[in-house]
Design goal:
464 residues; alpha+beta; Cathepsin B, Chain A; two-stranded antiparallel sheet; 17 helices; protease
Amino acid sequence: MRKSSVLVIILLSSFSFAIAQKGSISLEMIEDMHKSFNADKENIMRMNAISNNSIKEIALSRKNLSGVEHHFKYKVDVTGITDQQKSGRCWLFTSLNVIRPKVIDKYDLSDFEFSQNHLFFWDQFEKANLFLENIIAHADEDIDSRYNQWLLKSPVGDGGVWNSFTNLVTKYGLVPLSIMPETHNSKNTGYMRRMLRRKVREFALELRAMQNEGAKPKALAKRKIEMMGVVYKMLALNLGEPPQKFDYRFVSKDGELGETKSYTPQEFAKTILPETNYDDYVMLMNDPTRPYHKLYEIDNDRNVMEGKNWKYINLPNKALKQYAIESIKGNDAMYASCDVGKQLNNDIGLLDPDNYDFESAYGIEFNMDKKARILSRESGSSHGMALIAVDVDKAEAPVKWQFENSWGSNSGHKGYLSFTDSWFDEYMFRVVVHKKYLPVEVLKILDQKPTMLPPWDPMFKTDE
């Protein structure tokens, strides 16, 4: 080989090596990090402590453990704690927990619980139908398109929000828990959802193939109905069949027997809560990534084909608090959702930004605000609970709040979670308030043409 050729090869190799090194970490850099780390003796102390213990135990604020009490000046009359078990149905439990106090009060009951399993059956059924309809609608797009990838990523989940509940109760009504009780798979939804997703993804590929081969809309619709028959079968085997009609009577807390009556689920819902109009409830959100006092809608964010999408008014936290306080004073619980995993001390049932001092534990600062946490996917709504209480100072300004949770009575403080007003500012995202507690200027926002947002936006993870 000629010397000139060897020189060219060497130069090219050096150039390639230089490119490969751009942005990489050299051994010399690592050595500098090693020396810097060991030069600070506090790092050694922290390493010994954190590596041998839970970081939450190390960061736990001793100060926040003292003086914790769960008393509130204003509180909705609620009874009993529900348990969603190992499922993502918090939104469903929460929605039913918002309306059940009205039933308990109306019929003078010691306790009452709706069947979550009944609505969960229809939620999964309707989500499967919506998924298949969307697959047909987007069959002309590449399977790797963003919309198709969003559809296929989680075709049928068990999460949801308030509009998911209203879509279901409007169409399928309500039944008491004793009429359609929980099953093993309603309380442990993981494997059922895995099998259901597997089947509907298979159906999706079949429908795409039919569409691409020129199948007519009637043929696609006919095949989809056959597929939905399979979905119904899978759900019935896991959850039992929903009742078409049932007999029921209320028993008062004094043991007085009511009249046994026959109902369809739709008749039961209308009979026990005839004054309830679910269209009178408005979702308010605090999303600092977008302009306030605007109406927004999330594209295709619903569970029923003919149902309503997730729609909300974006407001500052101060407004959310004002209307939430009015609702609590009016003895009306609210659907609410938040990032429950942030700064949660479940042992004492308290959510507080000062519960855990991770900055002192690590010796570093965490500087993101709420907006930055949303944009970076660090924070978002993860859980729905009923907002039922608020404590205030002498000026009637909120100091702390309380959720009725659905993790059972052994979780938190006897099933409840209290949270400070500062935690509300950082990690509360939405509340659903009845129109009667909202001023005219807020209600007028509902007349705006909503800004349509994509379903994969980081702010719109469903509650689980």
